Amino acid sequence: MHINANAILIPMKDSNGLIGIGTFSMITRLTRRALRLYDEKGLLSPARKHIIGYRQYSYNQIYRGLQLKLLSDLGFGIQDMKDIMDSTDGFVEKGKLDTFLSKRIEDVNIEMNRLEKIRESLLTKSFLEVIHMEKNEPVLKNVPGLRVVSRREKGTYQDVIPRLISELFGMVFSPESQQARVRCIGPPLTIYHDNKHKENDADIEVAFPISGNITVSPEYEVKTLDGCKVVSYIYKGPYPDVGPAWKVVFEYIDRKGLRVADNCRELYLNDPKETPETELLTEIQVPIEE
After folding, report:
1. pTM of the predicted model, to two decimals?
2. Class (C level, CATH) for 19-92
């Protein structure tokens, strides 16, 4: 681990050949709060602690402080920092360092995808649909073409949809895809290829919007969904209870004299692993004739 400390001006020793916590904090750019936490967790303990709580560090500890600051800036947590420092200190096999770094790279890739979705939402102003959507009234809107990776199967909704979402998530966020700079640029969606509800043998396609060049096996498909005008309605609540929302959409279509043009879709706007069932958002989209 390389630290460039050329720009640091080392002040005179505070007393007894040691550095007070304030001076040490200035040199390492670590806050006093961080230094106390690192002491508590055994990452960096002062060379001397006085009874009244005054802490002093040695000059030899400056480099350690700079290392911890760098790891903190790279987003490593306390335990990861301890494991990495143990690796560089020779307490564990150096090969484990690659494991720590690979995990952090994976976390960074996931965060980059999350931020990319936020950026896309801000650029297209799609978040305003959720903010301004009136619960009991669908809206008409134009949906742009969307490049996706997808898989299509027959079965029950309860089995096929979550399983294919999990498979596609694993593919898009695999180390190979991330190395190829594949990004998920929108919420996952389901396309229903039947013209009616089926308890069994439903024809279901699940898709992830992506950018980048992804490599897929034959059972998957990379394609562009055509842009179209849709009736859009956002339902809030558990996935199994979405039925009445579909009723609202088709009543609206009938009332406005619209005609369905293509397969219906559902978009899942938040993560069920992080969101209570009552707060889940599902956008229903029904393409209509122009």
Report:
1. 0.58
2. mainly alpha
Q: For 131, list phi and psi in degrees, rounded to 5.
A: -65, -45
**188 touches 243 (CB < 8 A):** no
Alpha carbon distance, N-terminus to C-terminus of the chain: 61
DSSP type of residue 59:
G
- Residue among 14, 15, 19, 101 nearest 64 (CA): 19
Domain with CATH 3.20.80.10 in the chain: 123-287
CATH topology of domain 123-287: Multidrug-efflux Transporter 1 Regulator Bmrr; Chain A (3.20.80)
pLDDT at 72: 92
pLDDT score at 155: 93
Residue 200 buriedness (CB in 10 A; 0-12 / 13-18 / 19+): exposed
Banded model confidence at residue 8, pLDDT cuts 50, 70, 90? very low
Q: What would the pLDDT profile of 127-163 be if each residue is shown by its tens digit?
A: 665 555 445 689 999 999 999 999 999 999 989 999 9
Cβ contact 234:130 at 8 Å? yes
- For 46-69, b/e burial (b = at least 16 CB within 10 A) is bbeeeeeeebbbeeebbebbbbbb
Nearest CA to 262 out of 287, 285, 232, 284 is that of 287
How far is 78 from 71, CA to CA, in rounded Å? 9
